[in-house]
């Protein structure tokens, strides 16, 4: 047991999820189809996400679609929230499925049944004193917008998003005070399908498409910040970045420069725009060298400058190690980020390199750069869990992972970082975003649901459930 007294009073402990990965009920309450509904389950998904030319169609003869039922939070939210309350959650991060509120994305009025569902969820959370932390868009854009407009490629999606954001901000102004605009906005550099709603075709200039879409999202995000300031002045609204600090493979200055450039484009570019309100200087050169020419309208840059975010929400799972010439070296393919293997790190069963010190480094780098509060809204270990003969799930590997990352946050706070809270990812087992598996489990709560679709959906407390309960109760003193 490690003792530390570093977490401030009021630190926001909790867990994190996304609508498409837990709710199910994909056709209920007038919900429209969204991107997650057409992503296949299993390792096939990763292939779809990486290869060009995905057609966004459902093909049940070839694939299964785990997000359709997910873990049925849509019907079981009361039971789940009760378990979160038992662990002592102060906050619960969730997202609103855009296509529950605007099924096609183009309607003029929101869908009352969808709005009423989230009212019930928020009321249930408040019953236990749990504050919701809400992501407005988490990989679940209405499919109709993908088909009609090619997602964020098109500027026409901006006012549709603004309408959606204003509708939820208005409806829940008395119930939600922590908001985020786009989940892991920078992840599009690797996976535009999930967050931007298009795939890059063979022979296309990937960067032109992605950075143009980023621009539309930046404008949309600023419009949501503007609406939030007007509708709920006391609320806090953040951006959300996938943070994977970049290391140079060695001390060769060429590699250090290369690592710096990767860090700028992947880790900092979106934050620089959303926090500082300006396109950074290095982007100009990157755009020139990669033939990127962003179409902007008058007023865009003012809006981006005037409506920056209050805090940075970040996910942290891994660092990345980069080298200019990768030939002959093993890649850390499982990391999804195309770096090389770091000889000092072990990896999860999915090849994600485990690096708690990287969290401390990342928090220091981000806070040093931006000087606004940070909120770790995702972190966790995807692992295979086993139910023992006595019915227990002894997930000590998960406890070890989380403990070491919480210790790293405590160190970062001692380093002077202003950290608001921590919501570990997948506090209840859910559908994996990148592989569509149920067997990649993150939860403190086990859900009896399997990759072949079988399972009772029953919920069970894992060993980590009791451990996390003590962590929260002691405000991070007992780890
Ligand atoms: C983040 C996403 O990328 O990582 C989540 O915001 C996702 O939606 C999480 O589930 C873990 O990734 P995966 O692929 O293991 O589910």
TrEMBL record:
GO terms for biological process: carbohydrate catabolic process. GO terms for cellular component: cytosol. Signal peptide: none annotated. The active site is at residue 378. The keyword Ligase does not apply. Belongs to the glycosyl hydrolase 1 family. This is 6-phospho-beta-glucosidase. It comes from Gracilibacillus ureilyticus.
